[in-house]
C-alpha cells in the first residue's frame, strides 16, 4: 500500500498528517512541533532555514525571510490582489519583482524564485520531516487549498507538490477537509440525520465560508464564499501599524527593527486571545539602540478589527442567502484556522448562530491536516495525470497508469545545495542555477516498526502491507470503523464488516465562481455559474460563431465574477485550433463543455460543417499581456517574410523562422525552450536589424545604379561596396557585421543631397509599378528628362527635373499601390 501524506499548506503555518491504523495522526516536524511556520530564509552562508529557524533569523538578517508566499502562488504580477498582498507584507520582507513571463518572483538568498519553487522547497521539507516521523516514504499527497482558490492557484499548488517529489492524488478545499476531520455523523451530538453545516475557515492569509450538507454516506458542498486576502496576516499588519503609531517620533529604522515590531505584533495578537492586555517590549530599537515598552488592550485590537469583522459577517450572510438558508437552519458551525481563536471572531459567530452551534471539537489549527489524511483514506481510485490520457478510476494500489504508463508515484528528489529548489534524482544540473547535481542521491527515511493488531508481532516494517507472521493487513489505507474498530480498505465511507457509517464521505464539490469563455468583444460567455456541482455532464453552448479573418481560433477560459470583462478575472487556460485554410466571414461554432472531477474544463467543438474536435486546456503562467505582445510580433514577422519573400537570404529566413516558433508558442500560452528574459526584446531587435539591413542594402544598391551622372564616381563605388558588405553579412546572418555594414551604408545614404535621394527612390518605385498609372507615367517622363539633362551636362535642367521629381514624390505619398497582405493572428468566438 502506497502511503499518502495529508498536507495543510498554510499561509503562516503548515501541518502534515497521515492515517495510522485508520486514524488521522499529525506528524511532528524535526523539532517535535505539530505545525511548521511557512517561512523560508537563508543564513549568511547561504544555508537553508525553514520554519522557526527562519523566523528567528529575521532580526539579524532583515529582508532574507519569505513568508505568506501562498498569497502569491499562481498569480500574475499585474493582478490587483498581488499588489494588495504586497502592501500588507512585513516591512522587512525580501524583494519581489515581476518575472519575464509576467508572474511573480521572490528573492531567496542570491536567487529569485517563483512562488511555486518556494512552496516546493517548503513541501520538500514537510515531506522529509513526515517521513522521518512516520518511518515510511510518502510518494503521494493530498494537499489542501482555500475553497476560493481559482484554477491557476490550484494548478500552481499541484505543480509545487510535483516538484517536491509527490504525485498529488487530490487537491482538496480546506473547508471540505475540515468537515472530514470534525466527522459530523447522523444521530450524534443533537445533529439530525441530514445536517446543514457551515465551515468558517479563517487562516493566516485566506478566509473561506462553505455551506455543506452531510448525511449517511453523503457529503455535498452547497455554496462557497470567501476572500483570498483576509486572514491573520492582515491582523498582524494592523497591530504592526498600531505599534508604529504608538512609537510616535521614536526612531525605529534600525537594522532588525521591522522584524522586531512585526514579531511583537504577532505575539500580541496571540496573547490577546487569552488576555485583556498584552505587554510589548521592543529592544534594541532605533539606530542608536535603546528600548520601548507599552501595552495593547484587547478592546483596542477589536476596534482595529471592526472593518474585517464586518466583511466576514457580510460573507457569511451572502453564503447563507445564496444557499437559501437562515442562521437557524444551520445545525453546526465548524471553526477552522488559527485566527478563529480570536474572541471577537467567535463572539460574532455565537451572536449570529447561537453558542451551542459553534463547535470547538477539533483543534482549528490541526483540523485541515486531519481532514486531508481522512480524504486520503476515502480515495479508492486515481486519475492519470498525463495530458493526453483519459484513463480514470485507476486503483490506488497501482504504480502507473495502465493506459499510458504515466507514473502514479512521486519522483525521488534532491535539494540543490545553492538555490535549494528540489530536482529529480540524477538531474545533471539544477534547472534554476545550473549547479551540478549529478552526484546527489535521494535518501530513504529511517524505517519504523509496526505492531500487528492480529498476532502482536512488533517488528513489522511500517511500510509493510501485511504482517510477516500471520499475513494480517497492516495499514490498509482506509478509515477505522467507529463501531467495530476494523481498519478498512481505502475508498470506503462505511465499514465493510459491520456497515457502520464513518461520519464522512467523498464530497460533491461546487465551483466558487463563474467559469466562462472569452468572446471577441471582451465579454464572458458563462459556461458554469458559481455554485455549479461538478463533475458535470456535457453542456451545449448555443449561438456562437467565428467572425473575422484569421489563421486560428482561440478558446480562453476565465474564472471570476466579471462577465463584462474577461481580463478582470483569473485566466484558467486556453486552446488554439489551427486552420490551414484560414477563416473568412462568419462561420457557425458548435461548442460543448463540461467540468471533470478535478474541476478542469473540457471542450468539444465543431467549426462550420467540419469534424468535431476535443480540446484540453493548456494551463500556463505566460501572462495574456506577454501573449498579446508575442502575437503582435509574430504577425510582424509573418508580414516581413511574406512581403520580402524573394529578397531574404536563407540564413535570415532560418533565424527569423526559429524566433517565430517561440513567438507562436508564447502567443498560444505554451512554454518555450529557453528563458523568457529578453526574448521579446531580442525578437524585436532581430526583426528591426533585418529590416534595417534590407533597406540599407537596397538603398545603397539603388543609389549606386541610379546615381550615375548625379553623384561622383568614387561615391558610387563606395555605395556599391557598402551594399555588397551588407549583403555578405545578411547571407551569414552575422548580427555584428550586419550592424556595422548597415551603419556604414546608412551614413553614405544620409550624406547624399536630399533632392537626389528623393529622385532616386521615386524613380525606383515608379519602375516597380508602385504608383497609380497616371502618376507613374509622369515620374518616368521626369526620369527620362533628367537622364537627358545629365547626358547634356545641363545642370539647370537637372535641377528643374529634381524639383519636379520632389513634387511628384510628395504627390505620391499615400498613393503607393497596396499589396496583398497575408492573413495573420487568431480570433475569439463571438455571439451570433
From TrEMBL:
It holds the Pfam family HSP70. The keyword NADP does not apply. It comes from the Bacteria. Residues 448-473, 477-501 form the RanBP2-type domain. Gene3D superfamilies: 3.30.420.40, Actin, Chain A, domain 4. Keywords: ATP-binding, Chaperone, Metal-binding, Nucleotide-binding, Phosphoprotein, Stress response, Zinc, Zinc-finger. One of its GO terms (molecular function) is ATP binding. Belongs to the heat shock protein 70 family. This is RanBP2-type domain-containing protein. It comes from Streptomyces echinoruber.
